[in-house]
Specification:
With about 300 residues, the chain is of the alpha/beta class. The chain folds into two domains: about 200 residues, Periplasmic binding protein-like II (D-Maltodextrin-Binding Protein, domain 2), CATH 3.40.190; about 100 residues, D-Maltodextrin-Binding Protein, domain 2 (3-Layer(aba) Sandwich), CATH 3.40.190.120. The chain has 15 helices and ten strands. Strand 1, helix 2 and strand 2 form a beta-alpha-beta unit. Helix 1 packs across helix 3 and helix 2 packs across helix 13.
Length: about 300
């Protein structure tokens, strides 16, 4: 009953957000609308996509940062409220439910190609080549606990979770490829029901020992800085999560120069570079636009491959 009410509330919030013509933070008056989800890496990737388009074309981008979670952004692009955003392949497969049997391909290439076909057929959306890195869910514990208990994998940690407290972001707690399936796969049981909290608070709660385990992202800049450890997904529960641009096909037809501009991002970012940009924004409190501008300039000035 409680979970049903949560899902109903999420749906209502999604509808309200999608219905808004100009969410807070929008610059307004652009040729195309680029959105991002509601966490730091997405701030960076949304701005990266926007700057790339503006540098490579004569188009003006209307930015819609922090539009919402995966469900909100998916519904927004399907309904024509936005033109493009960066998604992760495993997330796209889960949120869109294009795999009716729920069996998401474990091979990254197979998943990408299937998404291209199914998104084009079902939604008239183009799944474009990946940016070069994967950002998978990271099940994180304190480094001192990992060392004291000699923990490296989720299977090993499962033996200790009955004495632990856990906290997760709302989306991870509810989505099909999140906590419900993970708990079933590893038989995770906790001292009390996991807390649902804002993503901006999960690492603080872990550091202050309010919780003992959480789910972050593998490219989060704070994980290494705070001495946390990522537990290995030894049963390979999580599907691939490669970062890919999702674009409305009608927008690509309307603006022919757009496809080549976005394709220029193919393979541009390594996981280490993404983690570094996340740290620059979160740890060093740098402006997202400046971080992205410097990154693109560095890539533009790099020597050409022989």
């Amino acid at each position: 009953m409680k979970q049903g009410l949560r899902l109903l509330l999420l749906g209502a919030i999604a509808i309200l957000l999608i219905a808004c013509q100009a969410p807070t933070g929008s610059s307004g008056g652009g040729d195309i609308i680029v959105a991002s989800k509601d966490f730091t890496e997405q701030d960076i990737l949304g701005e990266l996509l926007a700057q790339q388009i503006e540098q490579k074309t004569d188009l003006k981008v209307d930015r819609r940062p922090r539009l919402g979670g995966s469900f909100v952004c998916h519904q927004a692009i399907v309904n024509g409220k936005i033109d493009a955003y960066i998604e992760y392949t495993g997330t796209a497969a889960s949120v869109s439910k294009v795999f009716e049997d729920g069996k998401i391909p474990a091979d990254p290439t197979d998943l990408f190609l299937e998404l291209q076909t199914r998104y084009a057929k079902n939604f008239n959306l183009a799944v474009m080549p990946g940016l070069g890195f994967e950002n998978t869910f990271a099940i994180v514990i304190r480094g001192e606990d990992a060392q004291r208990l000699n923990l490296q994998t989720l299977s090993q940690a499962a033996q200790h979770t009955p004495q632990w407290r856990a906290g997760f972001g709302y989306e991870f707690a509810e989505r099909p490829d999140g906590l419900p399936g993970l708990a079933k796969t590893y038989n995770l049981q906790f001292a009390k029901p996991p807390q649902t909290m804002d993503l901006g608070l999960i690492y603080r709660a872990l550091l202050q020992k309010q919780i003992d385990l959480t789910a972050g992202n593998s490219t989060d800049g704070q994980i290494a800085r705070l001495g946390f450890v990522i537990l290995k997904d030894d049963k390979r529960y999580f599907p691939p999560y490669e970062a890919v641009p999702i674009v409305r096909q009608s927008t690509l037809v309307k603006y022919p120069q757009l496809e080549a501009a976005i394709a220029g991002l193919k393979g541009l970012i390594t996981a280490a570079e993404m983690q570094q940009m996340n740290y620059q924004v979160e740890g060093e409190l740098r402006d997202v636009k400046d971080v992205v501008r410097e990154f693109l300039a560095k890539k533009r000035d790099r020597p050409a491959n022989p």
